[in-house]
Write a structure and sequence with these properties.
Layout: H1 6-13, E1 21-24, H2 30-37, E2 44-48, H3 51-63, E3 70-74, E4 88-94, H4 96-105, E5 113-118, H5 122-132, E6 134-144, E7 147-156, H6 165-170, H7 178-200, H8 205-223
S-adenosylmethionine binds next to strand 2, strand 4 and helix 4.
Length: 224
């Protein structure tokens, strides 16, 4: 675990003791290696949709001497997993739209704890969680030496929820927690830039007005 910093460390810290891990889009396999090496996880399945990252993962797992505890599988999302073989799935380092697609295709199979870390479009992922019957249990901002991330914890409960525009952009982030606040301020900058672009585009007045309204709502939320 000491080998992990920032974003990956924040994800690892949320994996419960003794959990069997599934790391979806594992790439280098740093997360399963650190969690199994530290004894937090008894074993892990590390999956990737592409051969090349999976080969890199295999090299790192072999080098760590963990081939008997970390199984490597090629495939899309949760498809390579067997029913009942994992407790926590991490889907990190991909776009919010990609993670949403993985969850949609996993219908009924994503029944453990989910740790989700979208690199872009978290609002797409939050809307998908509401629409697909996942409950958001927790969300935290993570500041890795000035790079800001958000980390969501969710679990399927089958309840479809409304996701109003502000909720889609805020999720479980709270202005009284410093890293959450920094992430919310980044979101507001992104929305302000989008509103300015829309203002200059012909025929986009309604979208510009609704984005500007969202910026005001987010400002009110930040000011508490
Ligand atoms: C940027 S890496 C992230 C690696 C690691 N999870 C992290 O957070 O540092 C994204 C990885 O996700 C994989 N990937 C993308 N779409 C996927 C999918 N639908 N199913 C499984 N893996 C996928 C890519 O091949 C790539 O190796």
């Amino acid at each position: 675990m000491e080998a992990l910093r920032g974003r990956l460390r924040a994800i690892a810290d949320r994996v419960p003791d003794g959990a069997r891990l599934a790391d979806i889009g594992t790439d280098h396999a740093y997360l399963p290696i650190a969690l199994v090496q530290s004894g937090r996880c008894p074993g892990a399945v590390a999956c990737d949709i592409r051969e090349k990252p999976l080969a890199a993962a295999r090299r790192n797992v072999e080098r760590a001497g963990l081939s008997d505890k970390i199984s490597l599988r090629l495939g899309d999302g949760l498809a390579p997993l067997l029913p009942g073989e994992w407790d926590v799935a991490v889907i990190a380092g991909m776009g919010g739209d990609v993670i949403s697609g993985i969850l949609a295709r996993a219908a009924g199979q994503a029944d453990g704890l989910l740790l989700l870390q979208p690199m872009t479009s978290p609002e797409v992922l939050r809307r998908a969680l509401c629409a697909q019957g996942f409950r958001l249990l927790d969300e935290r901002g993570v500041d890795e030496r000035g790079k800001l991330y958000t980390l969501l914890t969710a679990r399927y409960d089958g309840v479809v929820r409304d996701c109003p525009p502000l909720a889609a952009f805020v999720g479980g982030l709270r202005p009284d927690r410093p890293d959450d606040r920094r992430y919310l301020e980044k979101t507001r900058r992104r929305l302000r830039d989008a509103a300015a672009e829309l203002r200059d585009a012909p025929g986009q007045e309604p979208a510009a007005a609704s984005t500007a309204a969202l910026v005001r709502e987010l400002t009110a939320y930040l000011e508490g």
